[in-house]
Design goal:
There is one protein chain. The protein is 36% helix and 14% strand. It folds into three domains: 235 residues, no CATH class; 46 residues; 52 residues, no CATH class. It is of the alpha+beta class and 390 residues long. The strands form four sheets. It has a three-stranded antiparallel beta sheet with strand order 2-1-11. A three-stranded antiparallel beta sheet has the order 4-3-8. A three-stranded antiparallel beta sheet has the order 5-6-7, with no helix packed on it. The protein is flat.
Length: 390
C-alpha cells in the first residue's frame, strides 16, 4: 500500500540517506568489536579458545562482513535468520549461512503430528529446527518473529523518501519549476505543445537554471511556484533526519546532523556513551546470547563482546586515568600497558602494585609509624623532617 504517494520497501529505506547512515554506523560498530569466548564467572572467569563459528561464522565472507549483514538484518528488518550448514566433530555449528528475511517464513503448526511446534521455511523448504539460527529484535508476547520496522514505521520512511523525491523533481525541472505562459488569443494544440517543449528544452533541469528566457509573439511568463524555503521543505527534511536517527537510537552528530546535536540535552561524549549503553548494548547482548546457546557453543562457554575501546576518552583523560589507577594501587604497569596495546615490561618489572603511604586501614597503625625494635619513641619515615640534623 503506497504511503505519501510512494511505495515503502527495504530498498526505499536504504535509499534514505539518514536511514542508510544509521544502519552503517550501528553495523560498523558491532562488526568491528572484538569477540571473545569465556567460561566461568566473576573471579573464575577465564578466556578459552573460540570455536570456529566465532572466528569465521561463514566461509564465504569475513567475520566483519557476516556481522555487518546480520546487524543490518536485525536492526533494519527486525530479525536475523540463519541456517547451520556445517558442524564440527562434536556436532556444534561450524558454518551459519545468513538468510534474507524475505526468504524466511515462520509459523506454528496447527494440525497433524507436529501440531503446536514452530516451523521454519527457507526459500519455501522446511528446515530442521536444530539447523535454524534465529535472533528476533523487538517483539511482542506470543510473536514468533521480531517487528519489522519497514512495516511498522512505513509512514516515517515514506515521508522522508517523498521529501527526497520532491527535492529531486524540483532541481530536475529547474530553479523555477512551475510557471504559466500566457498569450493573447487561442493557440492550436500543436502550437501549445511546441511552445511548452521549446521552453522546457531551454530551461528544464538544474544545468539550465537561471538562463535568460525569451518569449516572442506577445507571450508572458508568470512564475507560480513556491520556493522550497517558503514551503518549509528544508525544515521538513531536517525533521525527518532527526526522527530517523531517534528511532534507530543513533546520536544525530553520528550521521552528520550537527544542527540538532544539542537536542539530546547532552554533549557529544555523553551521547556516544548513551549510544554504547543503550543501542549497542541491546544488540550485542542478543548476539552474545545466540552464540552462547548450548546448541551453538559447548556447555558453560559464552561469547562476549569487548566494548573497552568504545569507552576510551581523549589521550589526556586516558593518561590521567592511568596515573590514578597506578597510584591508587588497583592496576600495575603491565595492566596499563595492555590497555594501550603494549607488551609487558621484561623480567616482570611491571607486575608490582603501589600502595599510597598516606592511607591505611582505620584503627590500624601504618607500618612506617611502628616503633623501632630497639625501643624508643616512634620515628617519622625518612625524608623531610626525618632527615634533619639535630
Amino acid at each position: 500500500m503506497p504511503v505519501a504517494g510512494v511505495q515503502v520497501s527495504e530498498k526505499t529505506v536504504l535509499s534514505i540517506a539518514a536511514a542508510y547512515s544509521c544502519l552503517r554506523v550501528i553495523s560498523d560498530a558491532v562488526a568491528t568489536l572484538p569477540l571473545y569466548n569465556y567460561i566461568g564467572t566473576k573471579a573464575k572467569k577465564r578466556e578459552v579458545t573460540k570455536p570456529g563459528v566465532l572466528v569465521k561464522p561463514y566461509a564465504e565472507c569475513t567475520r566483519i562482513t557476516w556481522f555487518t549483514q546480520a546487524t543490518i538484518s536485525l536492526v533494519g528488518r527486525g530479525n536475523v535468520f540463519g541456517q547451520i550448514v556445517e558442524r564440527d566433530t562434536n556436532l556444534y555449528p561450524a558454518q551459519i549461512k545468513l538468510i534474507h528475511p524475505d526468504n524466511a517464513q515462520v509459523r506454528r503448526v496447527t494440525s497433524g503430528a507436529n501440531s503446536g511446534q514452530v516451523e521454519y521455511k527457507y526459500f519455501g523448504k522446511t528446515v530442521p529446527i536444530d539447523d535454524v539460527f534465529h535472533i528476533p529484535y523487538l517483539s511482542v508476547p506470543g510473536a514468533l518473529v521480531g517487528l519489522n520496522p519497514v512495516e511498522y514505521l512505513r509512514y516515517t520512511f515514506a515521508l522522508a523518501h517523498a521529501a527526497d523525491l520532491y527535492g529531486g523533481a524540483f532541481f530536475q525541472n529547474s530553479a523555477f519549476p512551475s510557471g504559466l505562459i500566457s498569450v493573447e488569443g487561442d493557440l492550436e494544440e500543436d502550437e501549445v505543445l511546441a511552445l511548452q517543449q521549446d521552453w522546457n528544452q531551454q530551461h528544464k533541469g538544474i544545468g539550465q537554471a537561471h538562463r535568460i528566457g525569451v518569449i516572442t509573439g506577445g507571450a508572458d511568463f508568470h512564475a507560480i511556484s513556491i520556493a522550497p524555503e517558503d514551503a518549509q521543505f528544508i525544515e521538513s527534511r531536517q525533521l525527518s533526519r532527526a526522527e530517523i536517527a531517534t528511532l534507530y537510537g543513533v546520536p544525530p552528530h553520528m550521521i552528520g546532523d550537527v544542527d540538532r546535536t544539542s537536542s539530546w540535552g547532552m554533549g557529544i561524549e555523553q551521547q556516544e556513551r548513551m549510544f554504547n549503553n543503550t543501542t549497542l548494548n541491546g544488540i550485542l547482548q542478543r548476539f552474545s546470547e545466540a552464540f552462547s546457546d548450548n546448541n551453538v557453543t559447548p556447555n558453560g562457554q559464552y561469547a562476549e563482546f569487548d566494548l573497552a575501546d568504545r569507552y576510551k576518552n581523549d589521550i589526556l583523560t586516558e593518561s590521567q586515568a592511568d596515573v590514578l589507577a597506578r597510584n591508587g594501587g588497583w592496576m600495575n604497569v603491565d595492566e596499563i600497558r595492555a590497555r594501550r596495546g603494549l607488551a609487558p615490561l621484561p623480567d616482570g618489572k611491571g607486575t608490582d602494585y603501589l600502595m599510597p603511604l598516606n592511607m591505611g586501614v582505620l584503627g590500624q597503625d601504618h607500618p612506617a609509624m611502628k616503633p623501632p625494635t630497639s625501643g624508643g619513641e616512634p620515628q617519622p619515615p625518612g625524608g623531610l623532617d626525618g632527615d634533619k640534623t639535630k
